[in-house]
Amino acid sequence: MAHARTAVGAAAGLVLSGAIAVAAAAPVLADTVPSPSGSPSSTDYPPPEEPTLTAQIFQPECDGDVPYLRYAVTATGTENDTVTITWLNPSGDDVVQAGLPMSGRVLWPGAAVDASGTPLDWPGWRLEDGVWVEGDEFDWVRPSVDVTLEVNPELTMTAAYPPSSPSCATDPPGTVPPGDPGDPGDPGDPGDPTPGTTVPAAVPADGAPPAAAPPASGFLPQTGAGVAGLVAAAAALVAAGGVAVGVARRRRTDH
Fold it and tell me: The pTM is what?
């Protein structure tokens, strides 16, 4: 009986070991089952769109004697809906205007206005004792400056400071734009007065004769040679008249 129980136990152990081996092999078999043909893979998706940024408007302008930069940008391939404008200072801190709408206009760095939009300051000028004098910390934004527009992509363009016109001045009242001919602060002319002083109108030098009035319409002034010719012609006419009188007298005497 003991031998029978031992044989039965051994057989049961073999059966259990076989079941364990089959269970352990099952995941391996499952892992080797091929996936259905035609299933999508990660390489089947198109690549993402490359972001782009285009400036539709990039225009310096003067409005109410205040310098502005008007802009409008269009972006693709990004969900960002604001633009950051950075004025690039080549020798110092940049001026950054962030969180702006995709179109609009911004003040030129160094310009300042009050609540009603009246200009108070202009880049490249400072007010000292009630007199506008050239030179301040924003000299670098004129006559031109590089500007970066950033949404997700970015682009950099050059903006020229808007010039003054008869209807709109981008410099303080009564001043000459820096670098213009006749600019009182232009160091290229050693005779220029100190910046901020009043420059009088040009007057004739001492002893200089006043300018001659233009001749009347249809009259041309005579030169010295022309006057001499007229005198000679008059003398010839007088001589001819004398000869004619002498001939007439002789004829009357003969008769």
Answer: 0.55
